[in-house]
Specification:
Chain B is an alpha+beta fold. Chain B has 8 helices and 11 strands. Helix content of chain B is about 30%, strand content about 20%. Chain C is built from 15 helices and no strands. Chain C is globular. Classes of the chains: A mainly alpha, B alpha+beta, C mainly alpha.
Chain lengths: ~180, ~270, ~400
C-alpha cells in the first residue's frame, strides 16, 4: 500500500508528456519534405501541377505538318477557330512528332450539328456574329435540306466558294446582299 | 467579263491541280527517301515547343489575369469541352461553365446553364414563360483566382494555396476533402472531384501556362471572348485592355476577395 | 403565369452548387460536440462553482460527456474523401489562414486528455476501492485506470479534489472552444449569408449547453427508471437542472431570433434570399419544428416547471419530455444551419437540394447509428465507472 498521495498526479503528468512527445515526433516524421519551401504548403506540388500532361496544342501545333490548310484557314473568317474544336486534341493524333492516330473530321449530321453549335441563331448571340436558321438558310439558298454545310462552305475557309460565286454573279448579288 | 472570270477560275483550277500533283510526287518521293524517324518530326514540331514536357521557371514578375468579354461570347460551349478533356474533369462537375442570361420586358432575369453550357445553347430554347426578350447574353464562369482567396484561408490542412506566381492550386496528395473550401468559395467554382476524391477547381491551366501556352479554354474560344495574359507585359492584349478605359468589373466585389478575373461589358444582373 | 412554373424558371444554381456537400454527418458533428460541451459545463458548475444541487449528477455528467466524446470524430471521418489523411490536421494545421477547422485536431486532443484526466482524478479513490474487490479483466482495467497506484489516504483525496478543481476550471474555456470553434467555422464564411454573423459562435455554444443539460436530465431520469431507482432521484437536482436549462434556452432562443430580426429589419438582398428559403424549402424544419413546436412550446413548459411548485410526479414525467423536445430542437437547429446554408445557393437565384438517403455512406442509417452509439457506450462505461454518488464520495476529508 503506497502512501504517496501525489504518485497518481505525477503519473498523469508523465502520460501527458508521453502524448506530447508522440505528437511532436510524429509531426516531425510525417511532415512532407518540401513543406515550407515557398510558403506554408508542400512546395513539391507546384512542379507536380506544372508537369501535368497537355492534351490540346494550339493551331501552330497543326501548322508544321498541315501548312497549306493552316494558311488557308489563317486568312479566312475562321482564323480564330481552334483546329482542335472540330478535330480532336492534338495529343490524340500525334505524340513526339509522330502521328499515331487518324483524326477524321466529322461528316453528315454530326457536322451540321457542329457548325450549328456556333452558328444557329438564338437569343444571347452578339449581333455582329453570323447566325442562320438552318432550314430557312438552305431554302433561301435553294439548297436541298439534306446538304451538309461543307458542300457549299469549305470549312477551312467558309466564304471562299461563296465569295467566288458572288463574284461570278456580281450584278445580281450586289442587290441581294444584306 | 464573265468569260474572263471563268477562264481565271479554270486557270486557277489547273494551276491548283498541277500544284497538287507536283507536291504529291515530290513529297511522296521524299517520304520514301527519308526514314520516318521521330527525330525529324520532333524537330519540325519543336519549332514552337508544342506539347513539350519541359516547363519554364515560375515567372515571379508576372501579374496574370483572365478577362472575359461578355459581348463576344456566343455560347458555343467549346471552352467547356476543351477544359473537360484537358483536365480530366468528371462528367457532371465543372471547372468552367457558360451561363445564359435572358431579361424580359418586365426586367425579370432568367438564368440557366444546362450541362454547364457544354453542349452549347443551339438546342436549348428559352423558358416557355418568357414572352418577349429585352436582352440576352452569355457569361462564362471560372475560377476568379482571387488575390485574397477565401478558399486558402479556410483549408484546415493547407492543401490549397497560392503559388509564388499567383495561381491558387490544390495539392491533391495532401487534401483530405473536408469540403470547407467548397463552402467558402463565393463563386461556386470548387467541387470535390468524384474520381480523385479531393477538392478540385479551375487552375487557369497552370500546367499549360508554365509551358508558355494559353489555358485550354482561351485557346478553344472561337471569338476571343476569353483572354489570358500578363498585365505587366505591355504587349499583351490584357495589358492593353487593362490600361485603357474599358469597363472592367469583377464578381461579388464587396466580399473583398480581389478576384483577378475581369469581365468586360458585364451587366449588373450577373452574380 | 403559374407561380410554380415561374419560380422554377427563376431557379438557378451554379452547376457545382446544385447539391449540398456537407451532409447529415456535418449536421450531427456539432450536435455531438455540443452535448459534450454542455454536459461538461454541468459538471463544471458542480465542481468549480460549487453548485451543491448538481453534485449528485456531477460524475454522471462527466461519463455522459465521455461517451459522446468518443464519437466526435466518427461523422468527420465518414465524411472525408480521404480519411486516411485525417492526421494531416495535426501535422500541417493551417496557421496562415488561420483555418478554424485546423484547430479541431489540437482542441479535440487537448480536451479529450483533459476530460479523461478529470474523470480519472475524480474517480481515482473509488476505482482503487473497486480494484481491491474486483477480479480478472475488471481488475486489470482498474489497474490501468488508476495507473497502478493504490493510495487511499486523505491527503491523496484532498490532492485529487484540488487537481479536479483546476482541470474543471481549465475545462470550461476548453469545452467552450471545442464547440465555439464550430460556430466560428460557420460564422466566418462570408459567401453564405445565412452563416455569416458574429453571433454564430455564441448561438452554437448556447445551444450546446442546452443540448448537454437536456441530455443529462433525460438520461438521469430514464436510467433511474430503467434500473428501478426512481426514488433515488434528487428533486432539487432536477429542479436546478430545469431552471438552468430554461435560462440557457432563453439566451439561445433569444440570440437565434435576434439574428433573424435584425437582418429582416435591414432587408438587404442577402436577407431576401434567406427569407425566401425560410418560407420555402426550410419552412417546415425552421418555423414549424425548430421555432414553434420545439422552442415556443418548451419555453412555456420550462417556465411552468421552473416557476411553479409542481409535484414530484409531474416533474419526473414532464422533465424528460421537454428535455427530449429540446434535444430535438438543437438537432433541427443544426440541420437548419448546415443544410439551410447550402440550400441558399451562391447564385442568389434559387435553392440547391439535399435529400439524404437511408443507406448511403453519410445517410440516415449511419446518422442513427452514430447517435445511438454514445448511449450504448454510456451503458458500457457504467459497468466500469459507477455513475452515481457512492459511499466513498461521501467520506469526510479530514
Amino acid at each position: 500500500m503506497s502512501k504517496k498521495p501525489y504518485q497518481f498526479g505525477i503519473r498523469l503528468v508523465v502520460v501527458f508528456a508521453v502524448i506530447i512527445a508522440v505528437v511532436v515526433l510524429g509531426r516531425q516524421m510525417m511532415l512532407p519534405d518540401s513543406w515550407g519551401e515557398y510558403g506554408y504548403y508542400r512546395g513539391a506540388y507546384i512542379d507536380e501541377e506544372a508537369h501535368k500532361e497537355i492534351k490540346y496544342g494550339t493551331n501552330e501545333s497543326c501548322k508544321s505538318c498541315h501548312e497549306e490548310v493552316y494558311e488557308l484557314k489563317a486568312h479566312s473568317v475562321h482564323k480564330r477557330l481552334s483546329c482542335e474544336m472540330c478535330h480532336a486534341p492534338v495529343s490524340q493524333h500525334a505524340q513526339e512528332g509522330k502521328k499515331f492516330a487518324k483524326m477524321p473530321s466529322m461528316q453528315g449530321k454530326p457536322q451540321i450539328d457542329l457548325c450549328l453549335s456556333c452558328h444557329q441563331e438564338g437569343v444571347g448571340k452578339p449581333k455582329d456574329f453570323p447566325t442562320i436558321n438552318h432550314l430557312k438558310h438552305l431554302k433561301e439558298q435553294d439548297v436541298k435540306p439534306t446538304h451538309t454545310c461543307d458542300q457549299c462552305h469549305t470549312v477551312h475557309d467558309p466564304m471562299e466558294n461563296i465569295n467566288h460565286a458572288r463574284k461570278l454573279r456580281t450584278l445580281k448579288e450586289v442587290v441581294d446582299e444584306k | 467579263m464573265k468569260s474572263n472570270i471563268t477562264q481565271e477560275m479554270i486557270d486557277k483550277d489547273r494551276r491548283g491541280f498541277i500544284d497538287k500533283v507536283v507536291k504529291g510526287t515530290v513529297g511522296g518521293s521524299l517520304m520514301l527517301m527519308i526514314p520516318m524517324s521521330s527525330n525529324l518530326f520532333a524537330e519540325v514540331l519543336s519549332e514552337d515547343k508544342n506539347l513539350k514536357n519541359s516547363i519554364n521557371p515560375m515567372d515571379l514578375k508576372a501579374n496574370y489575369c483572365f478577362m472575359v468579354d461578355v459581348t463576344s461570347c456566343i455560347g458555343c460551349g467549346n471552352c467547356c469541352v476543351a477544359d473537360r478533356k484537358e483536365n480530366n474533369v468528371p462528367e457532371g462537375q465543372y471547372r468552367t461553365w457558360v451561363e445564359r442570361y435572358v431579361i424580359d420586358m418586365m426586367n425579370q432575369v432568367y438564368v440557366d446553364a444546362p450541362d454547364g453550357g457544354e453542349k452549347g445553347y443551339a438546342n436549348t430554347p428559352i423558358h416557355e414563360t418568357i414572352e418577349e426578350v429585352k436582352e440576352a447574353f452569355f457569361v462564362p464562369k471560372l475560377c476568379n483566382m482571387c488575390d485574397e482567396p477565401s478558399c486558402t484561408q479556410v483549408c484546415p490542412v493547407a492543401a490549397t494555396f497560392t503559388t509564388p506566381d499567383g495561381f491558387v492550386v490544390v495539392d491533391s496528395e495532401h487534401c483530405v476533402a473536408c469540403g470547407y473550401c467548397v463552402q467558402a468559395c463565393p463563386y461556386g467554382v470548387r467541387f470535390i472531384n468524384e474520381q480523385t476524391k479531393v477538392a478540385d477547381k479551375c487552375t487557369w491551366c497552370y500546367h499549360r501556362v508554365r509551358k508558355g501556352k494559353l489555358p485550354a479554354c482561351v485557346n478553344a474560344c472561337p471569338t476571343g471572348a476569353r483572354k489570358f495574359g500578363d498585365i505587366n507585359d505591355k504587349q499583351s492584349e490584357v495589358a492593353k485592355i487593362y490600361n485603357s478605359a474599358s469597363r472592367l468589373r469583377v464578381l461579388k466585389k464587396d466580399l473583398g476577395n480581389e478576384p483577378q478575373l475581369y469581365y468586360i461589358n458585364l451587366h449588373e444582373e450577373v452574380v | 403565369m403559374d407561380a410554380g412554373m415561374m419560380s422554377e424558371a427563376l431557379n438557378y444554381v451554379f452547376p457545382n452548387d446544385a447539391h449540398a456537400h456537407w451532409t447529415l454527418m456535418i449536421v450531427i458533428y456539432p450536435y455531438i460536440t455540443g452535448v459534450v460541451a454542455g454536459a461538461f459545463i454541468v459538471s463544471a458548475l458542480a465542481h468549480v462553482f460549487k453548485v451543491e444541487a448538481l453534485m449528485p449528477i456531477a460524475k454522471f455528467a462527466l461519463i455522459f460527456a465521455l461517451s459522446w466524446l468518443l464519437f466526435v470524430t466518427a461523422p468527420l471521418l465518414t465524411h472525408l474523401g480521404h480519411p486516411e489523411r485525417a492526421l494531416n490536421m495535426l501535422f500541417t494545421p493551417n496557421f496562415s489562414g488561420p483555418s478554424m477547422m485546423s484547430g479541431f485536431g489540437y482542441i479535440y486532443m487537448a480536451y479529450s486528455i483533459l476530460l479523461i484526466f478529470e474523470i480519472l482524478i475524480i474517480y481515482r479513490y473509488e476505482l482503487v476501492l473497486l480494484k481491491e474487490k474486483a477480479t480478472g479483466i475488471k481488475k486489470s482495467i482498474y489497474s490501468v485506470l488508476t495507473l497502478w497506484t493504490n493510495d487511499k489516504s486523505i491527503e491523496g483525496r484532498k490532492f485529487d479534489h484540488k487537481v479536479a478543481f483546476v482541470l474543471a476550471a481549465i475545462g470550461i474555456p476548453l469545452a467552450s472552444m471545442l464547440h465555439g470553434y464550430v460556430g466560428f467555422i460557420f460564422g466566418a464564411v462570408k459567401s453564405v449569408h445565412w452563416w455569416f454573423t458574429p453571433l454564430m459562435p455564441i448561438i452554437f455554444l448556447l445551444s450546446a449547453s442546452v443540448s448537454g443539460i437536456a441530455g443529462i436530465i433525460l438520461f438521469y431520469i430514464v436510467i433511474k427508471k430503467i434500473t428501478g431507482k426512481m426514488h433515488e432521484i434528487d428533486t432539487h437536482t432536477i429542479k436546478t437542472l430545469i431552471k438552468l436549462l430554461w435560462a440557457f434556452f432563453i439566451l439561445d432562443f433569444l440570440f437565434e431570433m435576434i439574428e433573424i430580426a435584425v437582418h429582416a429589419y435591414g432587408g438587404t438582398t442577402g436577407w431576401q434570399h434567406i427569407s425566401h428559403a425560410l418560407s420555402g424549402p426550410l419552412h417546415w424544419s425552421f418555423w414549424t419544428m425548430q421555432v414553434q413546436i420545439l422552442s415556443i412550446l418548451p419555453f412555456f413548459v420550462l417556465a411552468y416547471l421552473s416557476l411553479v411548485k409542481v409535484s414530484r410526479w409531474v416533474l419526473m414525467v414532464v422533465a424528460p419530455i421537454v428535455s427530449l423536445m429540446l434535444l430535438a430542437q438543437v438537432l433541427f437547429m443544426r440541420w437548419n444551419v448546415v443544410i439551410g446554408g447550402q440550400i441558399m445557393a451562391k447564385s442568389e437565384r434559387g435553392f440547391a437540394t439535399y435529400h439524404p438517403m437511408m443507406f448511403e455512406k453519410e445517410g440516415i442509417a449511419m446518422t442513427v447509428i452514430m447517435l445511438v452509439a454514445p448511449i450504448v457506450t454510456l451503458w458500457l462505461l457504467s459497468k466500469i465507472f459507477p455513475l452515481w454518488e457512492s459511499e466513498c464520495d461521501k467520506e469526510p476529508l479530514h
